[in-house]
Amino acid sequence: MRHSLRNCLPAVMALTAAFILPGCASAPEGVGYEAAPARKASPRAQREHVMQVIWRGRSYYALLEKFGPPRAVMEHPGLRNDSGEIVLYGVRDVASNCIDAFTVIGPGRSGDRIVADYFCR
Question: Are residues 28 and 52 in the same domain?
Fold first, then answer.
C-alpha cells in the first residue's frame, strides 16, 4: 500500500493543530499586541489638554474673572497683526508643575478678545 502526500496532509494538519492550539490557549493574560500597556499621560500633558478644552474659544473676560489680572502680557511673535498676545500667570500649579500661559487674540465674533490656546510652561 502506497502512501501519497495527498492522503497524509489531513493527518499532518490535524497533528499540527493539536500541538499548536493548546499552547495558544495557555498563554498568560495580557500577552499579545492588543494588550500592550497604555501610556499614561504626564500630569503636565493632562493639564494642558484639559485647559485647552475648557478655554479655547472663550472670552478673555471670562479668563480675567476666573484667574484675575495676568502677571505678564507679551506680544505673540508668530502673529502678523497686533491683535494677539500671550497672557502669562505666574502661579505654578502644584500637581502638574505648570505655569499657565494663554494665547489671546481679538476681536472675536462678539467684538471682544478670545482665548485661542493654552500652554503649560
Answer: no
